[in-house]
Amino acid sequence: MLADLIAEARRQAEICNACRYCEGYCSVFPALHRERAFSDGDITHLANLCHNCRGCYYACQYTAPHEFDLNLPRALAEVRQDSWKAHAWPAGFANLFDRSGVAMAALLSLGFALMFALSQGMRPENGAGFYAYMSHGLMAAIFAPAFLLPLAALAVSLRGYWRTVGGGAVRWADLRGALASAGRMRNLKGGHGDGCNFEDEDRFSHARRHFHQATLYGFLLCFASTSSGTVLHYVFGVEAPYGLFSLPKLLGLPGGFLLCVGTAGLAWLKTKADPGLGAPSAWGGEMAFVLLLFVVSATGLILYAATGTAAVAWLLPLHLGTVLTLFLLTPYSKMAHGFYRLAALTREASRRPAEPV
């Protein structure tokens, strides 16, 4: 299956390489035009560089009904999706999430929420805030492996991907360039900086870039909030609950708000975009991931607002259930695409010719 998808993407890349009309649109085309022939690793690299902004499709003169029938965004999206599944470890889970992403995320979230609700029967005799409902030791025993094991699975997957695309030793300068590009979402600005055509072929828009940035920075702020709480607890002996002006809250509240806005916006744009310019079979899994991130952030904010009320008893299990589901599905959901995209951008930075001194 992946071999057929790569063969079709190679056919289209060869035509694009001869045409060169879209030169400068995004990182894909400088990388594409640098080659005379495309190995399977080259096509996989191009696919993970593609941000699916779709500007090249709407500018192309060789789309259907032309006999060349080019649809490069879809061809690369299908290779990209299958490359993640091919390198996923353990194998098989990614295919399951693609087929039934929404149902799988919902069932896991509800199942884990029920588990956390039942665990309140073992609540500590004393404790403040969330620890009045669930002990810190129980949370740490569940979430520490649920966070570390998916990261290990991702590391194995990325190692396989890196070998496929011919990556070598990672230099700090290349990684720094990749991080800067990802942070600015540079490739969603479009070839002339006017934005991309993701949701409307006749209109350039920065909406997708802005929603992506809100999602990225919201997630990073939430992660920083959790990390700061961990440091306060284990290093300084300052235990939760934390006040409004504490570091975990100053990072977590704006992070949760940005994550809500970003994921809601991305889900809305996804309903407006043409599914034929992406990987149609992955639509459900991608939407499930976006909605799961939204529910994680929304339940976190609602839980904070409900602090001190009886609603915490059922809101806390629901929030923890969605967080645990997000962690466990990370290597097999679109969450993995951020890691692969960063790897592709790092690989591309290493292959650019050195600028003259």
TrEMBL record:
Keywords: Membrane, Transmembrane, Transmembrane helix
Transmembrane segments annotated in the record for this chain: 101-118, 130-156, 214-236, 251-269, 281-305, 311-332
InterPro entries for this protein: Citrate_utilization_prot_B (IPR012830), NarG-like_sf (IPR036197)
Entry keyword Disulfide bond: no
Organism superkingdom: Bacteria
NCBIfam families, per the entry: CitB
Protein name: Tricarballylate utilization 4Fe-4S protein TcuB
UniProt lineage: Bacteria, Pseudomonadati, Pseudomonadota, Alphaproteobacteria, Rhodobacterales
